[in-house]
Automatic annotation (TrEMBL):
The gene is SMKI15G0360. It comes from Saccharomyces mikatae IFO 1815. One of its GO terms (molecular function) is protein serine/threonine kinase activity. Keywords: ATP-binding, Kinase, Nucleotide-binding, Serine/threonine-protein kinase, Transferase. SUPFAM superfamilies: Protein kinase-like (PK-like). This is Protein kinase domain-containing protein. The lineage of its organism: Eukaryota, Fungi, Dikarya, Ascomycota, Saccharomycotina. Belongs to the protein kinase superfamily. CMGC Ser/Thr protein kinase family. CDC2/CDKX subfamily. Belongs to the protein kinase superfamily. CMGC Ser/Thr protein kinase family. GSK-3 subfamily. GO terms for biological process: cell differentiation; signal transduction. Transmembrane segments: none annotated. The keyword Disulfide bond does not apply.
Length: 375
């Protein structure tokens, strides 16, 4: 469960407009110290608009002279009493691979009909690049995302997922535009918790969410008993996209999405499938050959890794901690530097193994295989 720490509630602010894109908020909460204060907000270029809210590059100030920032403000319309899991996650989980919330405020604005729209405003650290734009940078220039970078970003996404999944929360919309990256430092952070769900044993779960290209087969089939493993599937699609430069499976609807998946994985197995070892070995060999053909410049171990991620059967799809211990990441455990795009100066890899007590608990027996060996 999330820690009980709460920031004081805010009252919906009137946004006192002072000039273009520049207004005053009299009740803004700092996440660092839970204190409320009055602040000026200046909104600049739109980064979103997403499907659920708008995201703008913004600056904050105590006096309208010196400005702090840039920040990214995500504004979502939500009824004032509604619980927001997105806010709960952003407020309570501090993690190097999840975007950081710096301030929060509520606001309301009048509609043409004289009604009020209530809005939650998340003021986050601003990270201008996404994995999507980074993939495009490489492929538009006729090159490929280096394997080491693929491993670096994948490991950090898994680390963020490990924390969410250990709280039984699935992200629900993992895709390259929701991975913010700082290419010069090799850092990746997951953003957009607007589709996140807390999975309960007998709770009603929605099945229509997650962008189609990244939607797990169990969601495409409308199965209600899915798990946090849906995010692992999405991650597999993201890795495939880093390798190929375009979405791995591009269906126009749920059925054609399943058809696209079947081109790599074969048809969905029937439950009565023969589980004999001999048949399983043959199927594995066939799949391995297919994966080698689809991802020609990957090494043997890298293909083995993908075979643990893009799996129909959710109990055979490896979870975050198991994947983090895979040999796929040995390159990160044994090396110290990477070469950022467009640079010929190697840069220190970011901190990847400084696990918190919560993460160590989540990793359990896998911890010792994940951290680099002591020299
Ligand atoms: N902190 C941030 N810094 C920079 N860009 C951000 C930040 N947060 C989000 N973005 C960008 O804004 C886009 C939209 O934000 P977000 O995904 O949270 O909104 P959404 O309404 O859920 O959108 P979508 O339906 O596209 O996922 C993101 O995909 C990302 O590219």
């Amino acid at each position: 469960m999330l820690k009980a720490k709460q920031v004081p509630g805010t009252t919906p602010n009137r946004m006192t407009k002072l000039e273009d894109e520049h207004y005053f908020i009299d009740d803004i909460v700092s996440i660092k110290n839970c204190q409320k204060s009055k602040m000026f907000v200046k909104e600049g270029k739109r980064i979103g608009p997403g499907s659920f809210g708008t995201v703008t590059q913004s600056y904050l100030s105590n006096n309208s002279i010196e400005w702090l920032g840039p920040y990214a403000i995500k504004r979502v319309v939500i009824s004032p009493k509604a619980q927001s899991l997105e806010l709960e996650i952003l407020q309570n989980i501090k993690h190097p691979n999840l975007v950081t919330l710096e301030f929060f405020f509520e606001s309301r604005c009048a509609t043409k009909d004289g009604e009020y729209l209530y809005q939650k405003n998340f003021v986050m650290e601003y990270i201008p690049q996404t994995l999507s734009s980074e993939i495009r940078e490489y492929f538009d220039n006729g090159s490929k995302v280096p394997t080491k970078h693929i491993k670096l970003y994948t490991f950090q996404i898994l680390r963020g997922l490990l924390t969410l999944h250990s709280m039984n929360i699935c992200h629900g919309d993992l895709k390259p535009t929701n991975i913010l990256i700082i290419p010069s430092r090799g850092i990746a952070k997951i953003c957009d918790f607007g589709s996140a769900q807390r999975l309960k044993d007998n709770g009603e779960l929605k099945t229509y969410f997650c962008s189609r290209f990244y939607r797990a087969p169990e969601l495409l089939l409308n199965l209600k008993d899915y798990s946090t493993q849906i995010d692992i599937w999405s991650l597999g699609c993201i890795i495939g996209e880093m390798i190929k430069g375009q979405p791995l499976f591009k269906g126009d609807n749920a059925n054609s999405q399943l058809e696209e998946i079947a081109k790599l994985l074969g048809r969905l197995p029937k439950s009565s499938v023969d589980k004999s070892q001999q048949l399983q070995n043959t199927l594995h060999d066939q799949k391995f050959k297919k994966f080698m053909h689809w991802f020609p410049y990957m090494e043997f171990f890298d293909v083995e890794f993908l075979l643990k991620v893009l799996v129909y059967d959710t109990s055979e799809r490896w979870d975050a901690k198991r994947l983090m211990a895979h040999e796929f990441f040995d390159a990160l455990r044994h090396e110290t530097y990477f070469l950022p795009r467009g640079s010929n100066m190697p840069v220190h890899l970011p901190e990847l193994f400084n696990f918190s007590a919560l993460e160590k608990r989540g990793l359990g027996q896998y911890y010792s295989s994940i951290v680099p060996p002591l020299d």
